[in-house]
Amino acid sequence: MTTVLPPERLDEAVAALADGELVAFPTETVYGLGADAGRSDAVAQIFAAKGRPVGHPLIVHISDLANLDRYAARVTPQALALAEAFWPGPLTLVVDRTDAVAPETTGGLGTVALRVPDQPVAMELLERFGGGIAAPSANRFGSVSPTTARHVVDDLGDVVNIVLDGGRSAIGVESTIVDVSGTGEASGGAPVLLRPGGISTVELEFVVGPILDGRSGPARASGMLASHYAPRAVVTVVDDQADLRRALTAAMTDDPTNGETVGVMAPIAVDHEPAWKLPADAGGYAAELYATFRDADREGVDRLVVLPPSDGRLLDAVLDRLHKAAAPR
Ligand code: TXA
Ligand code: MG
């Protein structure tokens, strides 16, 4: 049985982590499935619960910048500049690791992904626990990330005993991941973007200069795999309103799609049932994206036609998630 704990019962979550147990907790991006990053036995439970292949490295959440040296063996000038500018916040930095993290946490890699979340309940949890908390998104491998405690219970209720409730995740898409270990292939020491997210490339470049796009190489981050952020419904991303109309007409009249439910998600009102109207700004759109995917699945939508937002600082992150959701499975 899962217990959903209100923030006032945070002590119970701290005690569970100290006992090597799993605790799902809120962050400003998405909910995480946490365990003591220093304990192999604790971290092993994360992989088992998610059905995630062992060997996929996890993000280690830390309480503040002052803890960076405990987990990072080497802090490059770019790493420090980015951490100072964006922590706490939705930015994950990949750096050379120390032995303070269990080998399983980093999937055997010599680097570790670190982040200080900007969410009051998460911050208090980290402070009171006193160590790093390894946590991937608290969903089953391959399904969309949870942005409420309810989503976590829906996905992992049979395998996680404690879900700490901190309300809805404000940002709604995962953190930006940047490799600042200075060893990124062919990077010549420049930071390498591994996943777009809650901090835009423009913001990063303002602090450290040019960032290389590392998304085209071999998939190094599990979030880089196509079809990683997909709902059950088959997703089609369209370019504009005319394209949306065409896709809808095609989906409704195509023989093979007869009897299927076609849904629409768009930043405009569309005369169709069922349709979800999301905010026009990419930030607002991001905040509702995963919950809308879940709604569409619950309503039995077989095909979801999606019009992206056209503007906003989180546009890259939203387009990335939409195109992954639309990728062939
Ligand atoms: O916003 C977020 O980042 C959320 C919240 C819970 O913090 N977490 C999250 O975790 O999205 P997850 O496990 O779903 O994605 C973590 C990503 C994966 O794509 C993983 O491959 C990458 O981080 N990663 C972790 N350690 C890495 C490393 N040492 N080098 C390269 N990529 C790494
Ligand atoms: Mg994930």
Average of the residue pLDDT scores: 92
Radius of gyration: 20 Å
CATH architecture of the largest domain: Alpha-Beta Complex
Instruction: Extract low-pLDDT stretches.
Output: none
Supply the number of structural domains: 2
CATH superfamily of the largest domain: DHBP synthase
Instruction: Please provide the count of β strands.
Output: 16
Beta-strand percentage? Answer: 15-25%
Alpha plus pi helix count: 10
Order of helices and strands: EHEEHEHEHEEHEHEEEHEEHEEHEH
According to CATH, what is the class of the largest domain?
Answer: Alpha Beta
Helical content stands at: 25-40%
Q: State the end-to-end CA separation.
A: 33 Å
| Ligands, ions, cofactors | threonylcarbamoyladenylate, magnesium ion
Shape descriptor: globular
Which secondary-structure class do the elements indicate? Answer: alpha/beta
